[in-house]
Write a structure and sequence with these properties.
Elements lengths: L12 H16 L9 H8 L3 H13 L3 E4 L3 E4 L4 E6 L14 E8 L3 H7 L7 E10 L2 E10 L15 H12 L6 E10 L2 H7 L6 E11 L2 E11 L3 E6 L4 E4 L8
Parallel strand pairs: 3-10
Antiparallel strand pairs: 1-2, 3-11, 4-5, 5-6, 6-9, 7-8, 8-9
């Protein structure tokens, strides 16, 4: 078999355009500014609109641009860090938890979740839905699966429905003595429901963070959190759990 000399491989045209556009974003545009339409941009840089779209899609994936319904393509703010801590952790719903409960239902979880929780595949669990907002915009959505044995004293009288029910389940979870947690991260694409929650288009890139919380030698809860890949970046540090904080500021003036 022959070998490919990497030096001789030409850079794709859209990739070179992406570099040129990135420099233009830094020097000519500010955060939140709307870019000219595709026809005008293609004419300015002397490229086909298909090439332009490829470059714009790459810049969106890298978090430089955002496509907003009814607005157009805008210059994105700096990414926020998603910190996956390695130190002591607290249960979801603690005093410093920035997630906001939305509602809670009792339902049969996906098979993979049931297997991770070591519950019967037909056994309902508490499913807490939470959201996370930064600077007035949604950046993450979470489904937190909690089996019945983790919250044995939960009273339906104290938590009739909705966010109140979610808060009651989370309060009851605090009674357990936490042992450890495991995090896994993968790149995915937003489904219809996730896209709606995150104000994105279906198929947009997302970061899926799965966290298993252990207590009493078993998985006491499992979180599947979906973050906007265009506004979040992964960082690793000492704080426990998953948190969003201000990222390194990028100059765009």
């Amino acid at each position: 078999m022959g070998t490919t000399q990497l030096e001789s491989v030409q850079e794709p045209k859209y990739w070179h355009l992406k570099t040129v556009l990135s420099e233009a974003l830094d020097s000519e545009f500010s955060v939140g500014e709307i870019l000219p339409n595709e026809r005008d941009l293609a004419a300015r840089f002397g490229v086909a609109r298909a090439t332009l779209r490829q470059a714009l899609e790459q810049l969106e994936l890298e978090g430089r641009l955002q496509r907003r319904r009814g607005v157009g393509t805008t210059v994105a703010p700096p990414r926020m860090g998603v910190s996956l801590g390695t130190g002591p952790h607290t249960w979801p719903g603690g005093s410093e938890d920035a997630w906001q409960p939305v509602d809670c239902t009792a339902d049969v979880p996906p098979v993979a979740v049931a297997d991770a929780l070591e519950t019967g595949r037909d056994e309902p669990v508490h499913i807490v839905r939470r959201s996370r907002v930064s600077h007035g915009r949604p950046v993450a959505a979470e489904l937190l699966y909690i089996p019945q044995p983790s919250v044995p004293e939960l009273s339906g009288i104290d938590a009739p429905s909705g966010a109140a029910h979610a808060r009651a389940v989370l309060r009851e979870l605090q009674r357990l003595e936490p042992e450890r947690q495991e995090n896994a991260v993968e790149l995915g694409s937003a489904g219809a429901d996730e896209a709606k929650e995150l104000d994105r288009l279906p198929g947009a890139p997302v970061l899926v963070v799965t966290t298993r919380f252990f207590a009493g030698g078993r998985t006491a809860a499992l979180s599947v959190a979906t973050y906007r890949a265009d506004t979040c970046r992964l960082t690793f540090g000492d704080p426990g759990g998953v948190e969003i904080h201000a990222g390194i500021q990028r100059q765009a003036s």
